[in-house]
What does this fold into?
Amino acid sequence: MFDQLEILSMARGLASHSAARQEVVARNLAQADTPGYKARDIAAFSQSYDSGGTMALRGTRAQHIGSGEARATPRSFIERGIDGDPNGNTVSIEAQMVKSAEISTKHDMALSIYRSTLGMMRATLGRG
It folds into this structure.
């Protein structure tokens, strides 16, 4: 029932996208001193959601919830246009920290959407 509500589907997609992007940012920060490492990122949520909602959970067995469709996780790509260090590393710690804060804000927004939607459902059912 709840999978049919577009707003909850979008909130789930945003939370999944935020988690995947935070993982890429953490990997970039971990490789900040590695010679030749190129910073990576994930496409914006609007692009990945418009391309068919590739953020859904994947079930590996028929008993798993939502296992009818196996969808891929977003793929990271190498960022372009960043001047790197002389050793070839393109990770900017400041830029990655700004991205991390932005990602955290979007994840909090997804959780807020869940909370407000569930609050409206409870009020509708008279359990407010």
Observations:
- Residues 93-125 form the longest helix (33 residues).
- Residues 47 and 53 are 9 Å apart (CA to CA).
- The mean pLDDT is 81.
